Structures are given as structure tokens and as C-alpha cells.
Amino acid sequence: MTEKIEKGQTIEIHVALVDNSGQTVKNGPLSSATVELVVIDAKFNQNDNQYNWSIEDFRSNIKKARQGNSATVNVDQSGESIVSNGRFNLENGDKRHRDISIFSNSGNKKVRLGVMVVSPTQERVLEGLSNPFFVRGHDRPYRSKYTYSFSD
After folding, report:
1. 115: which of 30, 42, 68, 89 is 20 to 30 A away, CA to CA?
2. What does the alpha-carbon distance between residue 83 and residue 151 come to, in Å, rounded to a whole number?
3. Which run of H or E residues covers position 55?
4. CB contact at 8 A, 137 and 111
5. Would you say residue 53 has pLDDT above 50?
6. How many angstroms separate the CA atoms of 66 and 58, rounded?
7. CA distance 25 to 32
8. Residues β-bridged to residue 6
9. What is the largest distance, in Å, between two alpha-carbon atoms of the chain?
10. Could you report the per-residue pLDDT of 72-122, keeping only the tens digit for each?
11. How far apart are CA 35 and CA 12, in angstroms?
12. In which element (H, E) is residue 32 found?
């Protein structure tokens, strides 16, 4: 991720689900799993050396939308996410996804972008994390598009 983005800025990401050997999972139910992007506290896994956190620990670090925030109405997301257009299906284990934005109470904070499998699965799939970045709270249109890629 770039070091700074504007709140509401359109971004593009590339997500790939990889196995223990680092290969993209191209077959089976996980290759078309539904995933969701969430905003995570930047302090979570701040040393980038822990890759076995619990789902509870991950979820406890998700930045949630404020109650009654009108920005969260009619956006494709769960109740947990402050990312618009952040839920999508993988295709053959990966997906380049566009027109995502971070909104709501995310401005002027250092955060990470996280990705988690939300479709039912028998296996534990470790969530993915971006590097920390700063979200500026300005509510103005931003024309630049950035592409981000992370896999886990």
C-alpha cells in the first residue's frame, strides 16, 4: 500500500489465496471463496512476524462503522466493514478488484487493510494484511487510482 490515501478515494487491489507452499489455490471450493476487505488497527501484527493469530484476535482489531453513520447505507459490506464494495468472490483463487473505498470513521488514522474469507469453509484460512498506511480524512474527490497487492 502507499503510505497515504484519502478517505473515500477509489482504490484497486489484487487478492490471492495461497497454500502453505505459496501456490495460488486454483481448484476446489476455496478457489471461488467469498472474501471481505476490512480496516484493521495498524498496531495489529505490527512487527509483521506473527502468522498464526486467532480469528477472534483478528476480529477484535477490525475498525467498525459508527452507529447511524449515513455513509454506510446502501454499500456492499457486512456490518463490520468500513470498506465500500469490499465483498467479492475469488476466481481461480485470486481477483483484481476495483472501485473500493474506505469511508466512515477511518479518517486521519494509521490502519491496515485486511482480507478474510467469509464463505463457509471446513478449513481455517488465515486472514491477509497489508502494510500500515495513513487514511487522511478529507472528503474531497480524488482522481488517482492505486493498485495494491497482497496475498495470504
Report:
1. 68
2. 18
3. helix 55-60
4. no
5. yes
6. 19
7. 9
8. 136
9. 44
10. 444 444 555 788 899 999 999 999 998 888 876 555 678 899 999 998 888
11. 15
12. none
Residue 141 has which C-alpha cell?
474527490
pLDDT tens digits for range 90-103: 999 999 998 888 87
Number of domains in the chain: 1
Distances (CA, A) of 93 to 32, 49, 53, 80, 152: 6, 24, 22, 24, 11
What is residue 94's predicted lDDT score, i.e. its pLDDT?
A: 95
> Residue 96 is part of a domain; what is its CATH number?
2.60.40
Domain residues for the domain of 97 are 4-151
Amino acid at 46: Q
For residue 20, the 8-state DSSP code is T
Residues in the chain, overall count? 152
CA 138 to CA 17: how far, in whole Å? 33
Is the Cα torsion angle 148, 81, 102, 62 positive or negative in sign?
negative
Bridge partners, residue 88, by sequence: 35
